[in-house]
Structure formats: structure tokens, C-alpha cells
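Researcher: Batch entry, complex prediction.
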Amino acid sequence: MPRRHARKHLVSRLKQRHPPGTMPGTLSIDPAAPRPVINVMEFDAAGCRERTDVSMEELDGLAIRLGRSGGQQRAAASGTSPASVSSTATRAGAGSGVLWVDVIGTGDAAVIQHIGELFGLHRLELEDIVSSHQRAKVEDYTDHVYLVMRECSCHKDLEQDQISLCMGQGWVVSFQGKHGDCYEPVRQRIRQRKGRISAQGADYLAYALIDAVVDSYFPALEHLGETLEALEDETTLKPSEATAAAIHHVKRDLLTVRRAVWPAREAISTLIREDHAFITADTRVYLRDCYDHLVQLMDMVETYREIGSGLMDIYLASVSNKMSEVMKVLTIIATIFMPLSFIAGLYGMNFNTQASWVNMPELNWAFGYPFALGLMAATATVMLVYFGRKGWVFGTRRNR
Amino acid sequence: MPRRHARKHLVSRLKQRHPPGTMPGTLSIDPAAPRPVINVMEFDAAGCRERTDVSMEELDGLAIRLGRSGGQQRAAASGTSPASVSSTATRAGAGSGVLWVDVIGTGDAAVIQHIGELFGLHRLELEDIVSSHQRAKVEDYTDHVYLVMRECSCHKDLEQDQISLCMGQGWVVSFQGKHGDCYEPVRQRIRQRKGRISAQGADYLAYALIDAVVDSYFPALEHLGETLEALEDETTLKPSEATAAAIHHVKRDLLTVRRAVWPAREAISTLIREDHAFITADTRVYLRDCYDHLVQLMDMVETYREIGSGLMDIYLASVSNKMSEVMKVLTIIATIFMPLSFIAGLYGMNFNTQASWVNMPELNWAFGYPFALGLMAATATVMLVYFGRKGWVFGTRRNR
Amino acid sequence: MPRRHARKHLVSRLKQRHPPGTMPGTLSIDPAAPRPVINVMEFDAAGCRERTDVSMEELDGLAIRLGRSGGQQRAAASGTSPASVSSTATRAGAGSGVLWVDVIGTGDAAVIQHIGELFGLHRLELEDIVSSHQRAKVEDYTDHVYLVMRECSCHKDLEQDQISLCMGQGWVVSFQGKHGDCYEPVRQRIRQRKGRISAQGADYLAYALIDAVVDSYFPALEHLGETLEALEDETTLKPSEATAAAIHHVKRDLLTVRRAVWPAREAISTLIREDHAFITADTRVYLRDCYDHLVQLMDMVETYREIGSGLMDIYLASVSNKMSEVMKVLTIIATIFMPLSFIAGLYGMNFNTQASWVNMPELNWAFGYPFALGLMAATATVMLVYFGRKGWVFGTRRNR
Amino acid sequence: MPRRHARKHLVSRLKQRHPPGTMPGTLSIDPAAPRPVINVMEFDAAGCRERTDVSMEELDGLAIRLGRSGGQQRAAASGTSPASVSSTATRAGAGSGVLWVDVIGTGDAAVIQHIGELFGLHRLELEDIVSSHQRAKVEDYTDHVYLVMRECSCHKDLEQDQISLCMGQGWVVSFQGKHGDCYEPVRQRIRQRKGRISAQGADYLAYALIDAVVDSYFPALEHLGETLEALEDETTLKPSEATAAAIHHVKRDLLTVRRAVWPAREAISTLIREDHAFITADTRVYLRDCYDHLVQLMDMVETYREIGSGLMDIYLASVSNKMSEVMKVLTIIATIFMPLSFIAGLYGMNFNTQASWVNMPELNWAFGYPFALGLMAATATVMLVYFGRKGWVFGTRRNR
Amino acid sequence: MPRRHARKHLVSRLKQRHPPGTMPGTLSIDPAAPRPVINVMEFDAAGCRERTDVSMEELDGLAIRLGRSGGQQRAAASGTSPASVSSTATRAGAGSGVLWVDVIGTGDAAVIQHIGELFGLHRLELEDIVSSHQRAKVEDYTDHVYLVMRECSCHKDLEQDQISLCMGQGWVVSFQGKHGDCYEPVRQRIRQRKGRISAQGADYLAYALIDAVVDSYFPALEHLGETLEALEDETTLKPSEATAAAIHHVKRDLLTVRRAVWPAREAISTLIREDHAFITADTRVYLRDCYDHLVQLMDMVETYREIGSGLMDIYLASVSNKMSEVMKVLTIIATIFMPLSFIAGLYGMNFNTQASWVNMPELNWAFGYPFALGLMAATATVMLVYFGRKGWVFGTRRNR
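Model: C-alpha cells for the complex:
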């Protein structure tokens, strides 16, 4: 039952939140979240090295090579205070290669914290990464940019996942709540050295990942659009009680997509507008394309929502129409048979015809019965003509 | 069936989109799109040369004359990187003539790519040109401006087409999804050297083409307005179940027009506001006129949408009214004949009048039957008077 | 029938538009528009000269005196190109008097064009003047300002007219679609030298004309307000099917007024804000008053629209209530008489009382008939008490 | 009848307006407006002098003392031209005392004009003061500020009054349409020398008066809030036809309050933001408090309006529910008694049992009658069980 | 009964307000408000001292140590004029410790006034603190910032409390209307020296308190979300009259939460944007996190409100559907039994079969009774087939 699923989602979004008054920066791990699996890709114009399910130690080694480990580790040891954040801005440029650390699953506070220390992430940032109900936003931390978005996928029901991206000079760390395949095409392009991605910096990689997430909204919306069309037919042809619930369900899913798309648009707009040192003008052109897609998505979501609202109106009209038709049938039958029954009842009375000549002389007429039948036929005819004129009898059919 | 058509459109809008994660700048050709046919017009104040169904080679020749071929071809070969875009800005002014390349149909990636290379179009631009679901926008590429809009035509159903315009100093390349005749009057004006168009530059030609597209919205809206009026009559006089669906359909079409007009307005506004070297102040005045038309169109669309929403309310009220009328007929008939039938039933009881004098003495009265008939007539009269006072019997007619 | 009129208006607004792709600046004369009649008033602090139905030649003479004819005529001959517009800014100040040319009717392209040439009007301006469906706007043409607004009058139905004002240093040319009397009070004030109008410049005259147009909205809105009140009574007391249509009609008229007032507000605001050389600070104070009136009108329109929407809700509630009342009557009657009829039917059965003592012994009881009547009375009483408790029988009355 | 009152108000708001085209600055006195009564208070930190029903001559004397009479009278004589307004800015500082002239009633053009001349008020200002339908606004006239607001009081129905305040250095002139007591607490505070009002300047007095007007909205809103609550009970427990009208009435009153509060908020905001010489920073802090109250009022109005809209929905749902319940009763009764009556009718048929053994042998059975009664009882039981399962019989009660 | 509680709240919000025209700065104590209990915490990086239920004298002592008593007391004695406010800005820095005075209950004007004098609070500020219906806002008083917010808690019904925070260099004074436990986690963190709170200044403490209040909205919203879900089930499965009222109730509570969250968002935004000397850049990062939470809350509130509105639509549709089903049952029964009863009535007529051979010969047929029964069975079958085809009999079940 689709609705039940969506509902569970709505609750889970709230339940995972840490208790009120908790210290800010506390990593409240959702017990249901999968343990992190870390995949690393290192590439430059010359080649690409890929390692899957990397251990913490391997990651430390990589970070050392990137010139990030020394100062960072110490800063991390001294409490991850935001003061340390600005100090990390002085690290070396780390060559022209790009390091992409993809963390799938956020179910282990220690791992997340370790990665945070390696890359100099703020503790509020880490708090956002592990909480699964963030609104899309961009935050600028001097030496890196933090971006959070929601991915939508629609197999049977609309499912969401939180996607976090931290991108600095020469590195991108991405976090996904659960394993999704939306980054797979990007990995393929890096492996097969297709397009410009290998020759470009971390900013272009970040763009490619953002683009993959934005592209994930299209099939989800397409699915909702098809559901709407099916409901449009159902509403007009044979609306049932389930139709109203289904329309409500689609409208709710559209609200969910909207809640993902709308802030994402703002976030990307911020990314384009603000002057980040490691986002090149060239990548900005591509991000603008991404932004256009989000605007187009909003457009579609709003259109679908209006169509959904219109459908509910038609549904109500349709229910009223059906009831009206039922009433007509009842009225026609009752209006024809009530007078007939009355006439029959009339001549079923037991007045004593012998008491006087005015007492039901019809009963003894030679043609009393035909007379009564004729009276009934005339009454029925008059009624039918009346209803025919009103367009209730044949008109019902014609108008449909 | 009109609704079915509109629905197909809605789906196709989504289906043609490339799969998520595809490399940006990939030309995802819609297999249903017609193969491109290229028409070329060259004109200046002195004369005009027109060639239809131009081959790629002829186009190359034209581009060479325009001083666009050399640097362009090479830039294109080196990957159409945006860097090359700015380099093309140094080409020669190419005299005072205007070259208009009109490409009808976008069903061949190679042709589109070739044209893109000839005129130094960005690859994101080409991606937008071949995708058929773009929102109207203007993009500024140093040496040329890219504008995309939607054309609306309304033969039986509302149909849309995507119109792309790339305009540089001395040249305009226009792309249409399928053959439409909205540019025909502009061609006529160039051929017949009517008005100022021949004496003006490429910016004025671009304006003329934009104006033709904007003008295409008016007949479409007119058609929807007429449909609304017909529905207004239908709703008030004889609403049927199809009326609700028809109102919904018009509202949907208005949403479609709105989705075309609203971003077009923004796009034209951007075109006027921003400082493009090859758009003269004079043409800006004309574009402002175009902008005013779009504002007026929005105004009309919003008004029609409000009228449409109002119609749905009236429709629901009308259905309720009809049902209320049906109920009145039923109630009147039932309320009159039930008591009568009861009286008839009463005197149809078989109590033994000989058992005692209180057992149905009426049956043996001399005037028992007239008494019963009188009782019935009195009952019916009381009921009719009661309903008459309530305004149900004659009032029904008067109030309508 | 009022609705029919309003509808015709809606269509005509669209029909008069020139075909798509027409050359910009083409004067598409509405064949139904009356031929222009030109009235001229010349006045200064000393006196006033008024001429009605002025010929083209007389107008030329006047323009010569104003120092407008020479350069203008030539500029006009050279194609009314916008370039000539700025050149006309160099003409002489033309003394302190004010020339008001009032053109009633726009049904002759030659006359409009001639006037346009005399006063150096842009050809897009002329196109707007003769088209009858412009949105209110202000346009600034270096040496004069062009303002278009819609006048509303409400004799039986809401009627609109397009009012154009071109005002320069020392002259005002006004265009009306058809003869309306909204300028008459201004003419009176000039003739009778009442108030400050005679002593002021062309800007004050323009303000007085704008103010007259704005004032024309008040009676129209007043009429709609009164209609709304009448409908409020009708809806509550005796709603009929026509009520819904009438509410819809008022809402449509309010939309029309809104479409006139809203852009007019923007236009006047532009006029106040922008720095036109020939609008004095003093007149600006008066225009601000005008602007306040338009804000107040918007306020009223929005309030009326909300009341109108509320009325539709009440109407629907009222129809439901009426139907509910009808249902109650039916239910009460049916619920009382069905059991009674059943009892009567029961004792109308023909079981053979001689077959056994259990076969309908009541029929032969001495008090069988009173027993049956008592049973019926008891049943009816129980039902009435039940309905009385539910508040259906007497409650219906009390609650109303 | 409350609704009737409110309606009258709506019309009067329009009727009093001067005819279209009237000269601006014309004082169109509402014939129903009471004649002005002028009360004067003079006070400083040392003491307070109060005079009620002051004559024009006394007022002239006061004005002379204030150093306003000379230049003003002359300026007034020369036509109250705006030019004179700026000249009055040069008058003497008039010591540290505050003069408060409170004019109650605006029904005499001569008196209003005289006061206007004394204090150098612009003639558009006077026009606004005597017209009773102004939207709240602030206007800045060099040497004084003009503020107009609407007071709301709610004894039985919502009543409004227009409040004008002209405040300059050392003086405040206030105009009320009719006698209201909202200024009384301010007068008390001055008389009893309570609080800081006596020691402060005219700007603080103006603030105190504005605050009193703003405070007048609270009881009015409170009344509407209580009405809404009563209607909430009524709608849920026993909705009648009057409920819908009452909800509509409250929503209309809320619209009226909103129309008073919304522009007042803008006006006070303007007053705080703009730099008026005679409004001290200290008073600005108090005005900000006033502004906060208005924001809070808007908040409440919007909340109440949403509750009102929600109530209408519940009302419609409630009417539908009641009708549904009526239908259930009818259906249960009809569905039980129709089969019973049919059985009774069946055995009331007069087939000749002697014609053959198949002709109604039941009639002659020994237990024919008990058999028929049993058949009826079984039918009724089946029906009741069916309805019981559907939750119609006992469920109706439980669910309520 | 939940609704009753919510309503009381609505009224109390208004009732406590002081009468119109009251002197600004008057402390209108709500008689129902509890007497203040003052808890004090002093802490720095080294340690923490906590005192509960502090007397006024103790508080004076504390203030002297903070260097606030001298000048302040005198300023307070001289009338708490706003002028004194700026003078207090010159007091000593008071070391690095933080003093937190938490006042629970605002039911004693003298105590509040005394605290106000100690910390140099403006009298409008004190007025806001004791009034319980303030909208969230931030006010900047040179040497301290005043922030007011609403706390929401949801045990059974939604309850609100007003939270005021005055924060200066080294001190925070917080006021709560009644004892709530939302500050308890903050106190725990200070006591246990967990996190960074002990080592930070007053601004971080203020942030921690604001964060605790913002976190209080989440469980309240969660509760409303769960109620909505329960109502979603109820609406679809078995809607009763109480469902509509419950939906209305949730929508009202959402309005209340919205009224708390929306202005809080603005207030926090102001706090972040404006340049307060004692709010460090570091704390600003945390406040931005707080702001993000409020944006997310708004998002949820709006989503819930849309779901609530959608539910009302489904509820109405559901009621209509139920009625339609009831009508179908009635129509089927009536339509089957009316013709049957008519046939039975027909053969119950008493026409004299001996009068002629046409007079009801069926009565004497050998198979008259089977013939009549057959006629009835045929009629019933035809009717059932007709309804079956319409999908009324079995379709009703399938569609559900």
C-alpha cells in the first residue's frame, strides 16, 4: 500500500532528530543507517585509480599525500574548533589531480568524525551530514564549500536520500545515506575517460555529481506525471473512493519533490553567485545549466500540482454527478409507480358497493378493469413525457 | 479526443530527456524529430537572396564569405570548449548584410553539430536546441546571444514547438522543431522589401522573428477564450459530465500557455536590460513593445484562468441545483401519494364489519367511497398548498 | 442579458488584433471604430479659445503657431523614424499657453498618422493608440510622454474605453475610442476659469484628464458594490440558479476593473517617480493624490473580489441547505407513512380466518379496527417524537 | 440585523465621494457628518490648560500666540498655494509648550478651511480630512506631517471612523469624523500629569494619539475572535442556515479591519523611516512599539481569516453530514418497510384459491398468517443486520 | 476536549492586553501569571556556581560584582529614561565569566521592574516581557539585545509560552512565563562542563538558550504530524463528523506554530545580520545553524498545512461518496420493490370478475398466482441486471 510507505517516511524524518537542547555539533546517528563504505577515485588528465571499500588507514595515507593530514590531524585533536577551519586554508595546492572520496552510509559516528578531521570539516557540517532531514543548502567554509541536497528516486514509491558534498581545492568528499546508483554514470565517465571530466578539476567533478542528483528528479517527476494521467482517466471514466486518496497521494509526493527542488535551486544559485576561489568561470556556465534544469523542474512540479488540484475538483464534480444520476433513476421509478400503486390501492378498497350506487361503482362496471389499466397507462405516459421533456430519461444518456 | 492529445504531449515532454548522469553537452536527439531542412536568406538594403534546402557544403561556403569559417572550424575541432567562444569574437564585421539561416527540424545530431561549429555555438547551447522541452531563456555568449522560446499554435488542440534563435553581428540562426508557418510573414516582408526590415541589421531581424513567435500566442489564447465562453453557456444552460472535463482541459491548456509566456517575458526583459553590443537602442524600443505584448498576454492568461476556476464553481453549483430540483420532484410526488396510498390501504383492510359496529363502519356507509375520495383530495390539496408556500411547485419555475 | 454583452467584449478585445507577423507600427484600424472628431482648446491664464470638429488644415495652422510644424512635417515625411523624435526636442518653448487637442474616435488611419506627424509621435505609439486593447502604461519619448489608460463606465453593463494621452511642453493630445463624457467637467473648469487649471501648464491639464479617468472607476465600482449587496441578500434569502451566474458575472467585471486599475497604478507611479522635465513638482503632488485614489480603488476591488468569492461559498452552502431541507420533508413523510401503509397492507391480506385460529384473528375481533388505528397512531407518534428530538420537525423552523 | 448595518457602511463609503471630474482640493462635505466641535489643550511640563467647544475667534487668538497667524492668514488669503506651505516653515519656535486642537466632526467646510489656513494645511490635505473613506497614509509637508488612519470600534457592529492628525513643531491638530472616546485616556494622562506625556513635545503627543487609535483595534478584533469561537461551536454542534451568513459576516468584518490595519502599518513604518525634524529619536522608539502592535494585529487578522475560511469548510462538511444522516434514516426505513409492504400486498391479492391448488394455497394454510409474519420478521432482521454491519444503525451514533 | 483548550488560549491571548489608551511602558501584569522565581548561574572556563530561588538582595549583590549596580541604580531611580540606557554602555567589562539570571514567572511588577533597573532594560522592553502575547522580535538597545520568542510544547494540546532574552556583555537575563523544562539540558551542559559552553561567552549561552527554544518546536510539530497521519487513515477508512473538527483543530494548531516560527526566523536573521559587538563571528555560525532549523520548520509547517487542506477535500469527497452509496442502496431497493408492490396491488383490486370477462380474468386463471409471481420475478431480474450493468450492485464493492 503506497500511502503507508510515504507516511512512514514522514515520521522517520522527524524521529531521527536529536532530543531538544542537545549540544550543537552532536552527531546523532540514526540507528537504522547503514555503516559507511568508502570508495575512493584519484584521477587527473593522465589516468585514474579507483579503490573500493577503503579502510581508515588507507584514507589517512591518501590524505597525507594530499598534504592535508599534518595540520588537520592536530587541529582535529584540539577539538575541531571552527578556528582551526581557517588555518587549514594554508595547506599546499596538492598538484593538479582530483581526489574523490565517496562515503556511502552514515551509520558510524567515529568514521564520519575521522573523515571530518582529515578534511577539516566543521562540526556543524558533520552534524548535518549524519542527520537525514536537511534542507538543500550551500555553506561556505573558507577552504571548502559544503553542499547538501536531496536525491529522489521512484521505483514504486517516492524515496529520498540525503546527498552531502564537501569540495575543496583538488578534492571532493561525497556522503550518501544509502547506496544509490545515481553517481554510477559519473564513475563510468571517469573510468572510460569520456568527455572533459578527467581533464578538469574538483569543481567540475562536483558539478557532475550535482548534475547527476538533479537528473534524478526527472524520472521521479515523470512517474508522478504518468500517475496523474492515469488518475485523470480514472476520475473522468469511473471514479471510485480510492481515486481521491490516490490524488491526495500524488499531491503529497509532489510536495516532497518540491521540498527537494525548491531549496536546491536556491543553493545552486548561491553557488553560482558567490565568488568561490576553486569554482572556475567555465564550471559556472555548467552550473547555470544545472540551475536552468531546477527552474524547469519547479515549473513542472507547480504545473502538476495545479493539475492535481483540478483533478480533485473534477472528482468532486464526478461524485456529485453520479449521485445526481442515481437520484434521477430513483425519482423516475418512484414518480411512475407511486401513482400506479395508488390507483391499484384505490380499487383494492373494500367499500360495500351495495350500500349505495356511489360506492365504487367502477368495481362492477363491465370494463372496470380495462378502465383502471388505462388510467394507469395514461398516468405513466404523462410522467414519462414530463421526464423526457426535462431531459432526464433519454437526456441522461445523450449528455454523457 | 482532445484530452488524449494534450496528455501525450505532457509525457513526450519528459520521455525525450536523456538518461540521468549523461555527460553534459550530449545531443540527445528525439528519434521522432524530423530531419533538418535548412533555408537561407541573405539580404541588405540593396537586395535579397533566398535559398531553400541548403546542403552542408553550401552553408560552409556562406560561412566563409561571412569570415566565420576559418577560426571557427578549428575551434570546433578542438572540442567546442567555451574558451573558443570568446576567441570567435575577433572575427571581421562581415559588411552590412544580414545572413539568416533557418533550420527546420532538429533530428540529426551531425547537422546540428556542424552548424554549431560554423557559428561558434557552445555545446550546452546545442544540447538545449535539440532538446524539445526548454523553458524560454536568454543566454549571453560574448559574441552572440542565444534565445529559446516556445511557439504555440492552436488548430484543434494546443500544440507547441521550441524555437531557438542565435544572433550575432550580421547573422541569425533560427531552429524550429517542426515546420511552422509563423516566420512566413517575416520572409514575405524581406522578399517584398516592405517596411524597415531590409534596411536594418541582424538585431532587427531577430526582433521580427521574436515578434512573430509572440504574435503566435494571440490566436491560441483567442481559441481558448472562445472555448471558455462556449463552456460558460454550457455550464449555465445544460451542464453535463463532459463539461467539467472540458473546463479542466482548458485550464490545462492555459497552464501550458502560461508556462510558455511567463519565462518568455523574463527572457525578453533580460534582452532589453542587458547591454548587448549588437542590439541597437532603436531595436530595444521595438523589443519593449514585444515585452508589453507578453505582459498583456500574461494578463489575459491570468484572467482566463480565474474565469476557468469560477466556471468550475458554477458547474458544481449547477450540478447541486439540478440534484436539488430532482429531489423536489421526488419529494412532492412521494409526499402527495404516500398519504393517499395509505388511505386507500386503510380501506382495503379486511376487518369483519359484522364483528362489531366499530369495525370499519365506513365501508358500509352510503357515501363511504366519496368520503374516502374527499379525504384523499383534501390531503393532496393541503400538501400542494404547503409546497406552493415553500415555493417548490411554482417557485421552481419562476426562480430559474 | 448582461452576461452576453460582457462576453462580446471579451472576444472583441482579441478579434481586433492584427494578424501574427504583421510589420510593427502598422495601424490596424478596427472597422467598427468611429471616425475621429477633433476638438481643440487653447488657453492660458488670460483666456480660452475652444474649437470643435476641427479639420486637418486648421490643426496644421495651430501646430505652426506652436512652432511644431516645420521640423515635424519634414521628420514625418522622412518616415517618422525614432531618430526624428529626439530632434523635435529642440523646438521653441511656444509661450505659456496650453494647446489641448482631443481626438474622439480612432477609426481613420490617415488622420491619426497626420496628427502623429504633427506632434512627432513614434509609430509604435500610434499603433498603440488605434489598438483598443492596451494595458495602461507610460512611455517616455524624450520630448513628450505617452500614457495609455482604460476608462470604465457602467450604465447597464461595464463598458471600457481606451484613453491615450500624449503630453509635451505646452500641449496635450488626447485620444478616446468613442465619445465619453468623462472630460466634460475638465472642459467646464477651463471655460469657467474655475480653480487653478487655466493658470497652470500642460502638465496640470494632463493631471486633470488622468484624474477624470481615475474618477470614472468609482461609479463603476459603486455599481458593482451595489450588485454584490443585492446578491448577498438574494443568496441568503432565496438563492436561485441565476444567482450563481450573477455572482460569476460580477466577479468577471471586477476582474475587468482590476485589469484597468492595477496597471494604471503602476503607470502613474512611473510618472511620479521618473524625472520628466515638463512635470512640475507641484503637479507631482496632485499626481500623488491620483495615485492614492488608485491604491484605494485596488483595495476596494480586492475587497469586493473576496466578498464575491465568499458569496459563492454561501451560495453553495445555501443550495446544500435547501436540498437538506427537501430531504428532511421527504424522509419525515416517508418514515411516517411507510409503517402505516404496511400495517394497512397487513390487515388487507386475505388469509382465511377459518383455516385456523391463528390466521388473522384480529380481523374478527370486535375492536380490530380501532386496534389497527391505534397501532398506526402509536407508530406515527413515535416517529414524530423521534424526529422532534432530532430537531427536524420543529427545529427546522427554529434554526432558520 | 448586523449584516444590514455593515452593508450600509459599504455603500456610504462610496456615496459620499464627489462626482467624477470635480476640481481637486474641493471639500465635498458629507451632509450627514456632524458639525465640528473644537477642543483645545495647551500644556507643558509646568501645567495644562483645557478649553472645550472653542470658537473660531478663540482659535485665531491661540494661533497668534503660537506665531502662526500672521504669515499664515496672508498665505491662506493668497490661495493656499503649496508655495506658501514652505514659507510657513520659517515661523517662530513658539516655546516648549504643546498645543493640541481636537476637531470632532467635519461637517462644515468653512470651519475646516479656516483651521487649514491657520495651520498652513495643503488643500489636498483638507480634501482628505473631510472625505471619510481615506486609506491610512502619511504625507510629509515640509513644516508638518499629515497622517490619516481609521479607528475601529465594535459595540454591536464594527464601526469605523476616520482619524486625521496634522503635527508640526509644538502643535497637533486632530480631526475625528464623529465623537469617539479613544482619545479620552490621553486627555486624562495630560490632565493628571501622569507619565512622561506632559514633559514631552508634540511628537510624543502625536504618538500617544496614534497609539490610542491602534489600541482601538484590539477590542474590535477581540470581539470578532469571540464571535468566531461561538461560530466554531455552532458549526460543529448545530449548524443552521444562519451560521453560513454569520461566518461570511465575520469574514467581511475581518476584511474591514485588515483594510484599516494594513495601510496603517505602512504609514507608521514611513513615519519611523523618514527623517522628520520634529520627531525625536526617543519618540521613534515608541513608534516602533506601535508598529510592532500593528504587525501583531495583522498576524491576528490573518489567523482569524484562515480560521474563518476553515469554518466555512467545516460548515459545508457539516451540512453534508447532516444530509447524509437524513438519507440514512430514509434509506433504513424504506429498505425495511418496502419488502414488508410487498409481502403484505402479495397476500392481499385476490386470486381465486379455488381455481387451482397453485393459486395462493398459503391463504388457506392453517399457519398461513404466522408464516407471513415470520417471513416479514426474517426480512426485517436481514435488513437490520445488513445495515448494522455497514455501521449505519448503531455506527451513526458511535461515530458522532 | 482538545478544541476547548485551544480556544481558551486564543481568548487569553487577547484578554490580558491592557485597556486602549494606557500609558506606554505600563506593566500590565496578568493576574493568572505565577510569581517570579529567580535562578542564577555564574560560570567561566574554570567553574560554575548555581543558586536557585534567589532573593532581590542577593541579585543586587551579584549585579554589584558585575559592575552594573552603581550607575544603573541611579539611572533607574531617575525614571529608566531611554537616555540612561546608552550611559550604561560605559560600564566595566566584568571579567570573562558569564552571569545567567533565569526568571520563571512574570506575575510581580515590582520584581520585574527591579531586575529591569539592575540590568538597564528599557521600559517598553519590560512591558513586552510581562505581556504574554508578543510576536518574536529582536530589539537592539546599544548595550544589550532584547529577544522575544514563543516556546511550543505539546503534551496533550499545543501549549505556548513567551520566552524573553536580554543579553549583554557577560550577562544573560531570561524570562519565562511559566516553568518549562526546555532550558534544563543547557543547565546540565554547564554543570557537567560538557561541550564548549563553559568556555564561551554570554553570546554562546544566549545561542544555546535560543537553540533550546527552537528545538522545542520539533516535538510539537512531530505530534501534529502524527495526528495528521492518524486523521489521514480516519478520513479514508471511516470518516465521522468529528474528523472534520479534528482536521480543523490540527490546522489551527499549525497556524499557531507558524505564528511562532515565522517571526522567530526573521528575528534570528536580524540577529545574524546586524552587527552586535558582543556576538562573535563564531557564535554567528551557530546562529546560522539555528536559522536553518527555523527555515526547515517553516517548510514542515507549510507542508503539513497543505496536507491538512488536502485532507479536508478528501473528507468532503468521502462524505459525498458515503451519501452516494446510501442513495444507491435506497434506489436499488425502491426500484425493485415498487414495481413488485404495484403488481401485488394490481391483483389486490376488487373488480367484479363476474361483471364481464375482461374484469381481471387472471384472478380465476388456474395459474394466475404463479403467473403473477413470475411477472414479479421477471421485473426484479430486469432491474437487477440493469443495476448490475451500471456497476451499482457488485461494482460498489469492487471499486472500494
